[in-house]
Amino acid sequence: MKRNTIQRSLTLDAVQKLKCHPTAEEVYDFVASEHPTISRGTVYRNLNQLAANGEIRKMEIPSGADHFDHLCHDHYHVRCLKCSRVFDVDMDYIPDLEKSIKNTHGFELSGYDLTFKGICPDCSMSDQTRANTGANSRK
Predict the structure, then answer these.
(1) What's this model's pTM, rounded to 2 decimal places?
(2) Where does 1-72 sit in CATH, by number?
(3) Which residue has the higher pLDDT, 95 or 36?
């Protein structure tokens, strides 16, 4: 069992306070703003240890930075294709979804992560504002 260090507590506290599915870099920036002597490696290492211990959830994002979730229960997410922010999806969790797979190709499944993708309201609004500004400048 790993001992609970101040650095680990600071890292866990940051993920819980941010509540926005932060990247490791965002967690580091949050912790370093209050504790400038903490190293990036220390925060990254503690994030991985906290995830391995089940205290936070590590979300691996294909072709993007890993994100960390303060909620460890099974639930789904949506990721913005423009800004890469991740949000929780409000829907019932489907237990045993992997049992619906017809051919596992020999894999012994251990679980799954389901992430929807789309454009978040902030990015959509920003696109709309740019479109309106562009239309107004052509008049």
Answers:
(1) 0.80
(2) 1.10.10.10
(3) 36
